Amino acid sequence: MDARDKIYEGKAKILYATDDPARLVQYFKDDATAFNAQKRGEIHDKGVVNNRMSERLFRYLEENGVHTHFVERLDDRRMVVLKLKMLPIEVIVRNRIAGSFARRLGLQEGGTLRHRILEFCLKSDALGDPLLTDDHIHALGLVEDAVLGEVKRVTDRVNELLIAFFAPRGLDLIDLKLEFGIDGDGRLTLGDEICPDTMRLWDHKTGEKKDKDRFRHDLGGVEEAYQEVLARVLG
Fold first, then answer.
1. pTM, two decimal places
2. Torsions phi, psi of 48, nearest 5?
3. What confidence tens digit (pLDDT) does each residue in 160-203 have?
4. 86 has which bridge partners?
5. Phi/psi of residue 175, each to 5°?
6. How far is residue 108's CA from residue 121's CA, in Å, rounded to a whole number?
7. Are 12 and 107 in the same domain?
8. Are 34 and 107 found together in one domain?
9. Which of 82, 110, 133 is the last residue of a domain?
């Protein structure tokens, strides 16, 4: 499938039209950003890692009943995906205390929670992806109540499946960001990517961070951490 006109370029990916109006080619870049793009850089072969890791995890989720936009991987940096009408919100699942959640509430990073927390953010780089409550989403008409309920159900399923996937590979899923859209058949669909850019993964034994926090906080060994996670994922 040949990529045609570029229809969107984000911080980490480019989307191209194809000869099939229901499908796009998603290209993964090496560009890295953090803190709402206030910090920018490049991680060597990040696009390759994220493409191959997303393929493996999308296939795993599909095998377990989660509908995703993944169709096939074309090469090291490109995959074919379904064209979606994206919901204007991001979903964040927090299994442990970390990142902005810890800073916002003055909590110690790494602390445990009584149960997982779901957060919603408005997808707006200009506004810094502000937090939303269910009432915000309903009052502003961002997502219909029935669709939001399905988003929550699928998010919980994805979280459970990914925790189970990473555990035998010696990795703890601390949190993750998900994006959803509606496909051509009107079906809620998991989109975007699933990789060290969109989740926090800590080594189960050492607690060492194996994700984009190494770039965010200048911890070093960024490329090595991404390659190690990919190796564990591909097994």
1. 0.95
2. -65, -45
3. 999 999 999 999 999 999 999 999 999 999 999 999 999 999 99
4. 181
5. -160, 170
6. 23
7. no
8. no
9. 82
Q: What are the tens digits of pLDDT across the range 110-152? A: 999 999 999 999 999 899 999 999 999 999 999 999 999 999 9
With vertex at residue 163, the alpha carbon angle to CA 216 and CA 31, rounded to the nearest 5 degrees, is: 30
* Helix, strand or coil, per DSSP, at residue 91: strand
Q: Are residues 27 and 136 in the same domain?
A: no
The Cα 81–Cα 156 span in angstroms is: 23
Examine residue 90 and state whether it is found in any structural domain, yes or no. Answer: yes
Identity at 224, one-letter amino acid code = E
Residue 38 has pLDDT above 80, yes or no: no
Query: Can you give the residue range of the structural domain that contains 19?
Result: 6-82
Give bridge partners of residue 85 from the DSSP assignment: 182
93 and 77 part of one domain: no
Q: Is the pLDDT of residue 4 over 90?
A: no
Q: Rounded mean pLDDT of the chain?
A: 96
| Residue 113 structure tokens | 């929670």
207 in the same domain as 172? yes
